[in-house]
Amino acid sequence: MRTFTPASPDTLQLDIDNADDLKIFYAALPWLSCIAHEHGFPIREMTYRQSRTSGHWHVSIRFAKRLPLMERIALQAICGSDRARELCNWERVKCKSAHPILLIQKSPSSHTLAIRKARKRS
């Protein structure tokens, strides 16, 4: 069974299609987490699922605040998401689609990583 999941305004949806893009994701995640925290929208949750294709992953990153649509699309591309998909997302924005960021995936179990709220240093 396939599900169609539109992104909420506080969520990135990444489509990681190969080992090189996975390396980009792992390299970008600490940077993204740090910048998001510094600007007042820390990561609250990260969920990942294996795609229908072996070695491919779908990742959702939920922040504490909403992010502008075009900013979410740019961050998805920067974090290793399939650039052709992100170009299609951008096109859907330009065509005023009701759901410009959409992830199509099968419905198996997912893994959720709760991100602990960082403690302020004194």
Q: If you had to describe this structure to a student in words, what would you say it looks like?
A:
It is built from three helices and six strands. It has 122 residues and is α+β, with helices and mostly antiparallel strands. It has one domain. A four-stranded antiparallel β-sheet has the order 2-4-3-6. A two-stranded antiparallel sheet has the order 1-5. Helix 2 (69-78) packs antiparallel against helix 3. The radius of gyration is 14 Å and the shape is globular. The model is unreliable at 109-122 (pLDDT under 50).
List keywords for this structure.
122 residues, alpha+beta, 4-stranded antiparallel beta sheet, two-stranded antiparallel ribbon, 29% strand
* Anisotropy-based shape: globular
In percent terms, what proportion of residues is strand? 25-35%
Number of helices: 3
> Could you tell me the radius of gyration in angstroms?
14 Å
Counting DSSP E segments of at least 2 residues, the number of strands comes to: 6
Along the chain, the helix and strand elements come as EEHEEHHEE
Are there runs of 5+ residues with pLDDT below 50, and where?
Answer: 109-122
